[in-house]
């Protein structure tokens, strides 16, 4: 009777922990342009950082995703949340590339352990609290915690980075607190897997093909394409929005990725009554449209830029940066000049100014072809001694 009474709060405790864990995994997404501006990371480097996270997820799913069926749900969830807590502390400690890679890999390990375990845990707690009831509550809550959590993390991180101090510290500090609360909530939740008799011999998860080979391969290809699209948005979309489209708002970057994962959660909920084949076809069709629409829009513009807010052409890829930050895969630099690992993080990422832009009132005309690091009548602290700002690494 006691376990039944604890099943209801335990269900929501696991849902909360699941949501927080998934949200934490996407916290760095809207912050990537800031890392690029601070330490000069290229788009390829950001992609590698994201790929390390994906590798951690795959390794964890193969090695630990099935273990909770034998040793218990809590024995997997507690160390998984602990891994994410360590990753959050690493993000707080440094912004160097080795630390980012380590933190993202630990996050991937934690997410791989949590995804399958928390879903099964929620189903068992739901059944324990409501025997014989419909699975609808479990399905909606697990979907919201999984896909919805992935989107919520980007939105929260973008909001905090936009409106609070220390944008590369504050979001992680908030999630250190949330992960600590989640860890305590899981510890106090009743276990749903009874102890197994005998000695458990661990083996990696086996990958096998079930049913018709063609159907199986088609489903696998569709799943691969779906997660590949998610990967593109979570790793490159913020830099594309900030650099190529000249919208440097961190909140907007988070909102763009939130729209992707949020719509996924809504679609899963609304199409739950459709058959597997119908959902697969509808999902692939929607993803194809989502990829083609912005691609077609960009292809019909000028090859070296996109229209800026004044009707002219933006920098695109023709404006090479020497001494400025590169944001979004080779676009123009901004005032967020690279000043080493210990340099200041800009409060905002302004729209790049390119050769041929009209000078603003009160500023001398910028030299053509020198991006944003031209002399504008103010001293550059990085140049030393209060000397005028430099252009392309050469003093005036």
For the record, the count of structural domains works out to 2
**Low confidence ranges:** 302-344, 359-396
Q: In percent, how much strand structure appears in the residues?
A: under 5%
Can you count the helices?
11
Shape: globular
End-to-end Cα distance, whole Å, is: 81 Å
CATH third-tier fold name of the largest domain = Growth Hormone, Chain: A
Helix content: 55-70%
CATH top level class name of the largest domain: Mainly Alpha
Spell the H/E element sequence.
HHHHHHHHHHH
CATH superfamily of the largest domain: MFS general substrate transporter like domains
- CATH A-level architecture of the largest domain: Up-down Bundle
Radius of gyration: 24 Å
Characterize the main sheet: none
Average pLDDT over all residues: 74
Overall SS class: mainly alpha
Count of individual beta strands: 0
Short description:
The chain has 396 residues and is mostly helical. It has eleven helices and no strands. It folds into two domains: 2-192 and 212-299, Growth Hormone, Chain: A, CATH 1.20.1250.20; 306-396, no CATH class.
């Amino acid at each position: 009777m006691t376990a039944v009474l604890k099943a209801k709060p335990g269900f929501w405790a696991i849902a909360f922990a699941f949501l927080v864990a998934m949200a934490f995994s996407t916290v760095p997404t809207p912050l990537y342009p800031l890392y690029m501006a601070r330490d000069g990371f290229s788009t390829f480097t950001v992609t590698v950082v994201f790929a390390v996270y994906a590798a951690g997820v795959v390794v964890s799913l193969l090695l630990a995703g099935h273990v909770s069926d034998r040793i218990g749900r809590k024995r997997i969830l507690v160390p998984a949340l602990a891994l994410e807590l360590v990753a959050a502390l690493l993000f707080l400690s440094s912004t160097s590339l080795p630390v980012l890679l380590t933190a993202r890999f630990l996050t991937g390990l934690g997410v791989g352990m949590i995804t399958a375990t928390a879903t099964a845990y929620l189903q068992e707690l739901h059944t324990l609290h409501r025997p014989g009831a419909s699975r609808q509550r479990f399905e909606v809550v697990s979907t919201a915690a999984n896909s919805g959590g992935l989107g919520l993390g980007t939105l929260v991180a973008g909001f905090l980075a936009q409106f609070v101090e220390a944008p590369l510290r504050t979001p992680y500090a908030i999630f250190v607190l949330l992960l600590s609360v989640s860890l305590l909530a899981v510890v106090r939740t009743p276990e749903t897997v009874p102890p197994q008799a005998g000695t458990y011999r661990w083996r990696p998860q086996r990958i096998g093909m079930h049913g018709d080979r063609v159907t199986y391969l088609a489903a696998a290809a569709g799943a691969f394409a779906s997660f590949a699209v998610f990967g593109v948005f979570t790793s490159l979309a913020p830099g594309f929005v900030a650099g190529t489209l000249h919208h440097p708002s961190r909140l907007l970057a988070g909102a763009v990725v939130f729209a992707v994962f949020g719509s996924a959660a809504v679609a899963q909920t609304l199409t739950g009554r459709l058959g597997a084949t119908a959902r697969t076809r509808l999902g692939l069709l929607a993803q194809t449209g989502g990829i083609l629409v912005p691609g077609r829009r960009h292809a019909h513009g000028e090859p070296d830029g996109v229209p800026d807010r004044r009707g002219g052409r933006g920098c695109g890829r023709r404006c090479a940066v020497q001494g400025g930050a590169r944001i979004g895969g080779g676009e123009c630099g901004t005032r967020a000049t690279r000043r080493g690992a210990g340099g200041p993080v800009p409060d905002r990422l302004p729209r790049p100014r390119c050769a041929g832009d009209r000078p603003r009132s009160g500023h001398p005309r910028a030299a053509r072809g020198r991006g944003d690091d031209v002399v504008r009548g103010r001293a550059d602290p990085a140049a030393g001694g209060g000397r005028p700002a430099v252009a392309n690494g050469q003093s005036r």
